[in-house]
Amino acid sequence: MDSINAQSYAKVLENGVQAIEEVKRLGSSGYSKSEIYVISHDEDREGRIVDAAKINEIGLQEEGLFGAIANLFRSRGEALRSKITSLGFSGAEAAFYEKELDSGKVLVIAKKPLF
């Protein structure tokens, strides 16, 4: 499923290789590396994909201080839903994507700045 709203784009992919290819495709279509994120339920896998694709992880700038601190105390699923909503998706969309991540898939999100 692809989802496009005013400022955010998301695509669920089967594996890290497809995720890296999607990052490249988004880069060639005008997104900068700092506007593209990869999310996986497995933190190590997510880190490997982020490193291979040379993109940023979702952090303080995207989540805000409160969200980043709260995620320290949340389950991985709750933290992922919070990160997805911090990038402009609704709670229902975040729940859908997190369920896809539960089955081992990878989520690539691209977000343009609001200015």
UniProtKB/TrEMBL annotation:
Organism: Paenibacillus monticola
Source superkingdom: Bacteria
Name listed for the protein in its UniProt record: General stress protein
Pfam families noted in UniProt: YflT
Residue span, General stress protein 17M-like domain: 11-104
InterPro entries assigned to the protein according to its UniProt record, in alphabetical order: GSP17M-like_dom
